[in-house]
Design goal:
Elements: H1 4-10, E1 39-43, E2 46-49, H2 50-60, H3 63-66, H4 76-99, H5 106-117, H6 123-133, H7 138-163, H8 167-176, E3 182-183, E4 186-195, H9 202-221, H10 225-235, E5 246-251, H11 257-263, E6 275-276, E7 280-290, E8 293-294, H12 297-326, E9 330-332
Antiparallel strand pairs: 1-2, 1-9, 3-8, 4-5, 4-7, 6-7
Length: 333
């Protein structure tokens, strides 16, 4: 499989993993001027041009590909700045790889070229692309793929590999931050709501109360989840009625304070009296209560690993970039 970074670098309008129907077709640049090969930066003497920049701007803001190449006017300067910084880092990483004597084996390069070529629907389509983007030269394409592989391997070594966390490290973080993994008191409820609005007349509020009193009497005759849900569908006046009044699980702070004050003192299967929330009358059925508890490590491990390693990747990328930039000669044109 082609590394994601590879396909993104080889040609700005060649897809990352899945080809467009016509990779060699015209690119719509929208708010960008069509690139001409104009230099935009020099990194230790190596020239980066506006084609590199346009390609990376599309990577930074992929939605532009879906909107005729349009970038939000107010965001375009920041997108351009980030894209320029990214292609500078790519070039610095490539130069560092060469400095370290890193190479790509002929077999690996051949496979990458074969995988890249397989993205195209036909040889004619590939030849069109080669002519449009690689000066008609297979060697030009091989050089770009080789460069992309070396950059990818540098990022793997200096960022991804160094960001990996062991089970012991994850467990240590879990043990030292228990409150992060504590689930608050939660309750599973269904509701029937009779609204009366923010500034009701006395008569309107009285009428709503009468409807709520009738609803609570009907609710008390229901025997289960389905019975209460059917009532909610028939008489409730909020959006939850289409879900049988079911709010699923809610923890403290996620419901009106008047409702919260009542439901946590109830038991599963109980139905509340009429509760005045300030703009409506509410009847609640409690389906379950779950006290606050620490979520077991095994239940959070996968998500914790993902979150912490993403954070670590950001830190490693910043540190790697800072080391490379420290003694580099970078001129933005």
């Amino acid at each position: 499989m082609i590394p994601a970074i590879l396909a993104g670098q080889v040609a700005m309008h060649t897809p990352t993993m899945k080809p467009a129907k016509n990779p060699a077709g015209p690119v719509v640049y929208g708010t960008l001027d069509p690139p001409t090969g104009k230099p935009v930066a020099k990194v230790n003497g190596a020239v980066l041009d506006d084609r590199d920049l346009a390609r990376e701007m599309m990577n930074v803001f992929p939605y532009a590909k879906q909107h005729s190449g349009q970038f939000p006017k107010e965001a375009e300067p920041q997108i351009r700045k980030q894209a320029l910084r990214n292609i500078e880092l790519e070039e610095l990483a490539y130069q560092e790889a060469k400095k370290r004597g890193m190479t790509v084996s002929p077999a690996k390069l051949d496979k990458a070229v074969k995988d890249f070529r397989a993205q195209f629907d036909s040889d004619a389509q590939f030849q069109q692309y080669l002519k449009a983007e690689q000066k008609g030269s297979m060697q030009e394409l091989r050089n770009k793929i080789q460069r992309a592989i070396l950059i990818d391997e540098m990022f793997q070594a200096e960022i991804n590999n160094k960001a990996r966390l062991s089970d012991a490290q994850l467990r240590d973080f879990y043990n030292k931050n228990p409150e992060r993994f504590r689930k608050p008191d939660s309750v599973s409820i269904q509701t029937v709501t009779i609204a009366y609005g923010d500034n009701p007349s006395a008569a309107d509020k009285k009428k709503a109360r009468q409807r709520a009193d009738d609803a609570v009497k009907q609710a008390e005759t229901t025997k289960d989840y389905e019975g209460f849900g059917t009532l909610a569908e028939q008489v409730s006046m909020d959006d939850w009625r289409v879900m049988m009044g079911d709010h699923k699980w809610l923890h403290r702070g996620r419901m009106p304070k008047q409702v919260e004050a009542v439901v946590f003192s109830m038991k599963a299967g109980q139905i509340s009296d009429v509760i005045d929330t300030g703009d409506s009358f509410c009847i609640v059925r409690v389906n379950g209560i779950e006290p606050s508890h620490l979520v077991p490590y095994d239940e959070v491990k996968a998500e914790l690993k993902k979150d912490l390693e993403e954070q670590k990747k950001d830190e490693q990328r910043q540190a790697f970039e800072a080391r490379l930039r420290k003694n580099a000669m970078i001129q933005e044109l």
